[in-house]
């Protein structure tokens, strides 16, 4: 599968934008179950364990616009297979509720709101712009 470009993602997510709104940054991330559960499932039975890992993993596009932060859960790695959308107003998003960190492989972003919690990790190797976009989103909301 070819790597996604900024133009591909922006075109696929354009219907989710409000009038006059534009995408500043986007990043693809995943939320996986606990590592010990993953190890247990794979140790229990390799092939069914790997299938369970794929089924339990949630895929997200995190989109920072000039007004909002959108956490868009997708079915796979395509931004046009949308399952759910969680919206955060930038004006109402408190840096006290946001936890971010960047390591060697992943940028972690967590929003700890009671009604709309979000947590995912964004791998640097997904595409060449995933890491800079994820870091820019983390900096903008924290």
Task: Give me the secondary-structure topology.
Elements: H1 6-13, E1 23-31, H2 35-44, H3 46-56, E2 58-65, E3 68-74, E4 82-89, E5 98-102, E6 106-111, E7 118-123, H4 130-141
Antiparallel strand pairs: 1-2, 2-3, 3-4, 5-6, 6-7
Summary keywords:
3-stranded antiparallel sheet, 142 residues, 29% helix, 4 helices, alpha+beta, single chain, globular, 4-stranded antiparallel sheet
Task: Describe this entry's structure for a reader.
The protein is of the alpha+beta class. The protein is 29% helix and 35% strand. The strands form two sheets. A four-stranded antiparallel sheet has the order 1-2-3-4. Helix 2 runs antiparallel to helix 3.
Mean pLDDT: 91
Task: State the strand order across the main sheet.
Answer: 1-2-3-4
Biggest sheet features: 4 strands, antiparallel
Global Rg: 15 Å
| Number of helical segments with 4 or more residues | 4
Subunit arrangement of the protein: single chain
Morphology: globular
Short overview:
By secondary structure, the chain is of the alpha+beta class.
């Amino acid at each position: 599968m070819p790597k996604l470009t900024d133009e591909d993602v922006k075109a696929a997510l354009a219907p989710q934008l409000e009038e006059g709104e534009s995408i500043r940054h986007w990043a693809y991330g995943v939320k996986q179950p606990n590592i010990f559960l993953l190890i247990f499932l794979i140790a229990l039975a390799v092939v069914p364990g790997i299938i369970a890992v794929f089924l339990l993993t949630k895929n997200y596009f995190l989109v920072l616009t000039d007004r909002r932060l959108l956490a868009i859960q997708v079915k796979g790695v395509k931004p046009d297979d949308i399952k759910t959308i969680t919206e955060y107003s930038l004006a109402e998003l408190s840096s006290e509720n946001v936890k971010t960190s960047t390591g060697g492989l992943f940028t972690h972003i967590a929003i700890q709101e009671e009604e709309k919690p979000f947590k995912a990790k964004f791998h640097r190797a997904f595409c060449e712009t995933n890491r800079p976009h994820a870091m820019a989103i983390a900096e903008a909301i924290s």
